[in-house]
Amino acid sequence: MESSEVTAEVCSMAAIGRRIEDVLIVDDDDNIRMIVEMSLEGLSDWKLRQARNGREALARIEELLPDLILLDVMMYDVSIRQRFLNPLCNQHD
What we know:
Structural class: alpha/beta
CATH superfamily: Response regulator
CATH topology: Rossmann fold
Helix content: 40-55%
Shape: globular
Number of helices: 4
Order of helices and strands: HEHEHEH
Number of domains: 1
Strand content: 15-25%
């Protein structure tokens, strides 16, 4: 996801009056998760959480109910896309 897309999503959440507190970073690459977390640390008071794959992400989502999910949509594990993204996209059609 490009930084402009992240900014647009954050701005749209702010526009509807929703405060972002919990962020879930989902990526199967340890280095990418670390870089994303390091990039976001100190910029806000967000609680940053991580998941390594779709199964772990689904468990974290149910446990934490994050306000924002930064998701590697090219991840080989498609379970999270099938479970959450496809239904969400269909709601906006």
